[in-house]
Amino acid sequence: MTTTPPPTQTPPHASRGVHAAARIRATSNGYLTTVSLLHSDGPFHLRQLRHHGTQARVCVLSAMSAPLGGDRLAIDVTAEAGAELEITTSAATLALRGATTDHATYDVTLTVGEHATLYWLPQPLISTHGSNLRQTCTVDLAPTARLVLREEVILGRAHESPGNLASRLTVHRDGRPLLAQQTTFGPSAPGWDGPAVLAGHRATGHILIVEPAFASTPPAPRLLGDEPANGQGIVAPLAGPALLATALAPTATHLRHLLDDAVRPSHPTRHG
């Protein structure tokens, strides 16, 4: 008698996760910026918001829990020549443990054309216990482009240790490197919560402002925060028409206050 072996079962830990992407493109007719492309799938849902003056605005909503282990997510944003575009998210992004032990990836690509302005202002990313996320943000700026980019990270929910998080930011302006930095947090990064890194704080973030006018009038460096227990930070000009404000704090609220204070004298920023 011939028997047919049962079909091979894929173990849960080998799950490939969700592969999804979103694309946003904004163009200008010389008077008003319009969103010429909104495409998304998987956990992404894109909603165009009411204009702010001539500026177009888009909100990224999450239609499902993501990123989970094994997920491969990507967002591609282009502000074409002369366009003014703001991107925000409806809520914090939760990096969660999935059915697989594989890491998740979340890749953001931002392209800003000549005389265009892009505000990238997502809500914080929360690294939850057991999660494993590798996040990248790659920015390509034309020589006359303007950028306000905010990234905030909360390491663990209330009374919870964080997962593993690796985040990399790479910025090119006129084809030349302007900024490249990488941070890692969580159990796989020795010393991440020690005095040389976060000193026990659980919220950290930065705002990058690229402004061509800084070439002639660069911002002065300064420290942020009067009470170390409530967080501290620094505003530093870069070797280019840009400034980088970096801060750490005990909570997301304290972190936002520090970053808002960092940019208030330098550039108008939205509160997405």
Set down the secondary structure blueprint.
Elements: E1 19-28, E2 33-40, E3 44-52, E4 55-62, E5 72-79, E6 84-89, E7 93-95, E8 104-112, E9 117-121, E10 125-127, E11 132-141, E12 146-155, E13 164-173, E14 176-185, E15 203-210, E16 222-224, E17 232-237, E18 242-249, H1 252-263
Protein name: Urease accessory protein UreD
Function: Required for maturation of urease via the functional incorporation of the urease nickel metallocenter.
Main location: cytoplasm
Describe the structure in brief.
The protein is mainly β and 272 residues long.
Structure overview:
It is found in: Cytoplasm. The structure is a single chain. With 272 residues, this protein is mainly beta. The protein has one domain. It has one helix and 18 strands. The chain has one helix at residues 252-263; strands spanning 19-28, 33-40, 44-52, 55-62, 72-79, 84-89, 93-95, 104-112, 117-121, 125-127, 132-141, 146-155, 164-173, 176-185, 203-210, 222-224, 232-237, 242-249. The strands form two sheets. Strands 3, 4, 6, 7, 9, 10, 12, 15, 16, 17 and 18 form an eleven-stranded mixed β-sheet that branches. A seven-stranded mixed β-sheet has the order 2-1-5-8-11-13-14, with no helix packed on it. The longest helix is centred in the C-terminal third of the chain and has 12 residues, at 252-263. The termini are far apart.
